[in-house]
Give the backbone structure.
Amino acid sequence: MLEETLKWRSTYKPEEIRWHEVAHEGETGKVSRANFHDRQGRTVLIMRPGMQNTTSAENHIRHMVYLLENGIMNLSEGQEQMSWLIDFTGFSLNTNIPVRTARDIVYILQSHYPERLAIAFLYNPPRIFQAFYKAVKYFLDPKTAQKVKFVYPKNKDSVELMKSFFDVENLPSEFGGKASLKYDHEEFSRLMAQDDVKTAKFWEIDEKPYHIGNGLSVTEVAPEPTPIAQAAS
C-alpha cells in the first residue's frame, strides 16, 4: 500500500493542489472544514450532498482530496484521524454523485489515506439514500464500514452517540447541536489561501503568487496562519 501510495502521490501530486484550482467546487459549501474539533481533538469535515453544484467527477474528487490534505495538515498535535459529519438536508437523486465517483473516492480514501477516518456520521439520511449506500458499501472495507454511523434526531441512542463525540455548543443545529452552520465562501477561501502558504512551506514548494480576491495574492497572506479549527471544550 505504501508503494502504491508513493506512486499515486508522485503522479497526482495532492500536496500541490491549491484552493484557487478547486474553489469553484466549494462555492455552495458542499464539503468544508469545520471551525471546531470533536471531543478527541480531531479535524471535522462537514459534507452536504444536497449542495452538489457540479458534474465533473474529476474536479469533485480533486476538491475532496484537497480537503483531505488540508484536514490532515490541521490535525491537533498527537492526532492522526478526522471525523466526518454528513448533512442530508436538500438531498435528492438529482444532487447525488454517481456511484462510480463515490467508488473512486472510497478507493482513494482506503488506499492512500488508510486509518485517517475515525468516524463518519450520516445524519438523518432519507430512504432514497439507502439504495445508494448499499451500492457504495460493496466497495467499503469492513473496517471502514464499521466507522459509518447512521444517526437520527428522534432516536435516543443516536442523540447520545453524537453528544459523546461532540460538544453540542459547537455542533451545528443541522446535526442536533446549538450552533449555526453558515458557510461563507469568500471567508473560507481566504482561510484556505492562508493554509496553502502553510502547505507550501511544509512541502518546501516554491509558490508563485495568485489572486484570491480583494486585491490580495496568496503570498500576501500572513505567512503563519492560525488554525481555523478550535478544539471543543
